Amino acid sequence: MSYAWVIPASAGIPAGTLFLIIVLLLACLLLGFIAYMIPIRHWIAAMFSGVPIGIFSLIGMRLRRVPPTEIVDALIQVRKAGIEVEADILEAHYLAGGNVGRVVAALVAADKANMNLSVQRATAIDLAGRDVLEAVKMSVNPKVIETPEVSAVAKDGIQLKAIARVTVRTNLDRLIGGAGEETILARVGEGIVTTIGSTEHHKKVLENPDLISRVVLAKGLDNGTAFEILSIDIADVNIGKNIGAQLQTDQANADKNIAQAKAEERRAMAVASEQEMKARISEMKAQLIAMEAQVPLALAQAFREGRFENKQA
After folding, report:
1. Which of 172, 165, 189, 177 is closest to 137 using CA atoms?
2. Do 121 and 136 form a contact (C-beta atoms < 8 A)?
3. What are the C-alpha distances in Å from 265 to residues 116, 255, 284?
């Protein structure tokens, strides 16, 4: 059988050598495909780490488009930490779009901190969009969040501006479906406004800032949230405006404007009455002048008719 048709004879490569090269290339490609589909290296690493996973399970991961490296490394990590996790759970979590590495790191951190965190809850928290590793860290090391400046007015009309620092830690049982930090800040701000607003005198708040902390903390503001409030500390309290005096001034100005408007209305009515009276006087004068103009005419008419002379006789 001749293979001279595969490449021009001018190339100087014998047909048998060319055939051997093609066979070697195909063999290399086949071996590469087999090495990819059968992750021997990962199987050996799992076997020496004491992870019970078979070679066919790794091949199945390849077929399901799950990277064996990520699953095997995670299984080795939890195995060394003394945590029992099945490969199917991690594989299903990866296929659901979860972060296997972050879940495993959270499980290890929770186990070292003697926290009760199951793999089912950890995967559920991760799939819910929460950072499960950060949640575990916050449970061990509480976080301090600072409220923006909150303004409130005491009963004596003095405005106070307060800033509070809230120490919270994650509540893993309420992490799924629980409200976030924004809700905590909003509730604490509302509690500060209520506490200051119910105080008779602003000096009482300035003398005892912890009054706000005690009252607000007793309200149970962490209900329905993903956090547990450990403490509320008032970082700063400043005096603002005298809202009571400002309201009285505004009310006095409003009363003055109303009085001026009424006075202006009365003045306008008086001016209108005066103008009307002047118009009537002018009309009466015109009538009087018209009547006076008729007197000579009447006398002349009487002379012509002889009535005036007869009356003289």
Report:
1. 172
2. no
3. 80, 15, 29
- 48-85 per-position pLDDT tens digit: 777 777 777 777 777 788 888 888 888 888 888 888 88
Task: Mark 211-237 as b/e (b = at least 16 C-beta within 10 Å).
Answer: ebbebbbebebbeebbbebeebbbeeb
pLDDT computed for residue 249 by the predictor: 75
Amino acid identity of 301? Q
- Which residue, chain included where needed, has tokens 């490969």? 87
Amino acid at 43: W
Mean pLDDT of 245-266: 81
